[in-house]
Amino acid sequence: MKVIITESQNKYIQKVMKAIERESQGNPEWSNKHHILQFYGLQDSEIDYLHQIEREALDKFKGLRFDVMDYQSKVSIGGYDFTFLIYRIEEYILGEEYISHGELKDVSWTVHAYVKFEGASVELMTTGAEMPLEDALSRDFGWEIENEVNDIISDIIVYEAPILKALGAYISVETDFSYS
Question: Which of 116, 121, 114, 94 is CA-nearest to residue 105?
Fold first, then answer.
C-alpha cells in the first residue's frame, strides 16, 4: 500500500531524513527509531512513509547479484569470498508500543539471499587455512560461518542504502546456499 502524505508533510519528512542521515554519518551505532519518532514528533502517516522508504530501499536489491570482493575496502568481509543474489524481502509488523503520539507500528525486514557455492571460500581465522564455503558450513562451526555470511550480506545492504541505518531499520538475513 502506497502511503500518501501532504506536501507540507513531505517537506518536513525530507528535512527529517536529511538530518537523520547527517547525524548517522560516521556514527557506528544504529539509530533508535523510537527516539527519532519522539524527537521529531512524527505522525502516524509519516511513520508509515518512513517504512515505505525502507521498503523501497530494500526492493531495489531484489534480483541483483553481489560479489563480496567488490566490498573489500568498504565493509568488513574477513576471509570470505562469495557471491549472493537477493531474491525476496519480507516485512513483519512488530509488537505495538505506545509513545507520546499514540500507537507505534514498527517493522522488521527479512532479506532472503541465495549464496553461490561455486568459487566460494573462507579463510579460517583460527588456522589461516582456506576452505570451500560449503565444507566450512558442514563443520561443527558451520553455524558461526552462516552467521558471519549473514552479517556480511547485511553490511553490504546497509553500505549500499545508508538510509536504512539512519532510519534504524531492523534487518535480518536468511540465506539459502546453491550451486548456480
Answer: 94
Total number of residues shown for the chain: 180
What does the angle CA 47 – CA 9 – CA 99 come to, to the nearest 5 degrees? 35
Q: Which residue has the cell 536468511?
A: 174
pLDDT tens by residue, 109-123: 999 999 999 999 999
Q: Which sign, positive or negative, has the C-alpha torsion 18, 22, 23, 26?
A: positive
- In 3D space, the residue among 3, 8, 86, 106 whose CA is nearest the CA of residue 45 turns out to be 3
| Alpha helix (H) residue ranges in the chain | 7-24, 33-40, 44-59, 133-137, 142-160, 163-166
pLDDT of residue 26: 65
> Residue-wise over 108-141: b if at least 16 C-beta within 10 A, else e?
ebebebbbbbeebbbeeeeeeeebebbebbeeee
| Rounded-to-integer distance, Cα 111 and Cα 171, Å | 7
- Give pTM, 2 decimals: 0.83
Distance, C-alpha 56 to centroid of its chain: 12
Write the DSSP assignment of 57-84 as a string of letters.
HHHTTTT-EEEGGGGTTTS--TTEEEEE
